[in-house]
Description:
Chain A has helices at about 45-60, 90-95, 125-135, 165-175, 190-200, 210-215, 215-225, 230-250, 265-275, 290-300; strands at about 5-10, 15-25, 25-35, 65-70, 85, 100, 105, 110-115, 120-125, 140-145, 150-155, 160-165, 260, 280-285.
Amino acid sequence: VTAAPALIALDWGTTSLRAYLMGAGGAVLQSAEHPLGILKVEGGDFAGAFRAVAGAWRAASPGLPALASGMIGSRQGWREAPYAECPAGLDAVARGLVEIPGENLVLAPGVSFIDADGVPDVMRGEEAQIFGAFADGGSGIAVLPGTHSKWAEVEGGRIRRFATFMTGEAFAALSGHTILGRLFEGEAFDAGGFARGVAHAALKQKGRGGLLHRLFSARTLGLFNKAPPQALRSYLSGLLIGWEIEEAAAWLRRKPLEVTVIGGAQLSAAYRAAFKQRGVAAEAAPADAAALGLWRIAAAAGLV
Amino acid sequence: VTAAPALIALDWGTTSLRAYLMGAGGAVLQSAEHPLGILKVEGGDFAGAFRAVAGAWRAASPGLPALASGMIGSRQGWREAPYAECPAGLDAVARGLVEIPGENLVLAPGVSFIDADGVPDVMRGEEAQIFGAFADGGSGIAVLPGTHSKWAEVEGGRIRRFATFMTGEAFAALSGHTILGRLFEGEAFDAGGFARGVAHAALKQKGRGGLLHRLFSARTLGLFNKAPPQALRSYLSGLLIGWEIEEAAAWLRRKPLEVTVIGGAQLSAAYRAAFKQRGVAAEAAPADAAALGLWRIAAAAGLV
């Protein structure tokens, strides 16, 4: 017996869109990934993209409500849904939903955090993943690796505060557009090079080298034949991911003992290797955390 | 009365070549800059480039010795001159000169430093500038801003140890190839944005934000209208230059009270603004520090 469709849930980001047909209780009945991220929708025809993705589900179940999180609710998206400020739980995000008239679709707001120095930080879409990963209303540290990695302190199911680390994008820019990439050979993951990068990042704690300095070692270890050229790319990756972990520990004001990693399998595997090396227990969130989080937001808003 | 020509001195780097005709005592008689850095010499015809640059001086003063420092002595240059290891003074560099047969030209070695963790660092060409700036054989901290900024501890005229910071290249890669540049408007220097970046970098001391995190503020301050778009580029520049200063202070194990800045006028001005803001006295090295340093190396080697 399959539950009747109850919600169309969309995780609609910058480069891709993941769509879920969900049944009563939050079960995922069907899902599909589309290359229709907001920067890839031609002419900004979001209504057309929405029909292409959800049209068949709507036709089969007329009146089905739809909820989308992610960059679709940003200034560059379909309609801006202003940020909910930390600490932010399901209730705050549900209160901030913005309707797209005539589409029976609502957009979830992102979440913002203003730090002690008045500097803002933002997320859009990750909040749904966090609500899915912490569906039991528990507490912990969520890590969402990526272009802009996010670390969030979750307390009783609410996002207390969070920080963005530009790890993935810095890696791409530094390996593709500086002298560092010149010595790299191949793109295969090299476990030894990665582990060495993580270890060098850990020297930060001892005051031995800041990041602007340490980056140069991805060149000099190659120049002095202290690392094989096919290990250098993974070395830089390990250095940056390790650096993120060190920065995050300082941000948390303690070394984390356990974290919940939310994200794609390949990148999460690298993070899990780094966490293991640093003695941090890393639990993997369920693969459809975003869908479950969207379901919970919809429930809090009375949509389902 | 003009001194008779005694040396052809070349500061031959990656992108440009600065040539000096020097007289007895180390006076600069003539100088010229050529777009003949080692990556720009077609087909690696360094002999042809050398003749184009120094041929007229040679013809007027047959037998004039020539000395070149910089990337011309690297593996990618004309001939490799292996690094002199720190601590390195004039004597060590003079001992490492490598001859180009038939050209009456010698290449100066670069200088290397292996840190406590076994990680190498390198410079090529900066050592001549340092020997020129510290021609009195004194002690101090030399700062050479640039694509790869160098900080060196100089003791009795010798380079005791040094560190590279990839500040300039990281700025170019991050502003040109990440989301940060999207909000930038214009390339004019914005003093207020720059100062704010330096101030935010200084929060590092208080454990408030690592670099991978702090970089994202160059976007969020714009998103939240907390900084005008025409200030964001200078904000990122101030953040990175300020970060270099904080990292270097940790590397020196003390806040520097005074530094000698060696480098081009425009970039040095930004560094001097950052040093002033952080309470560090910055003295400018003479403009022709490289020429004087080359002269001193030539003298130590008995070439002049």
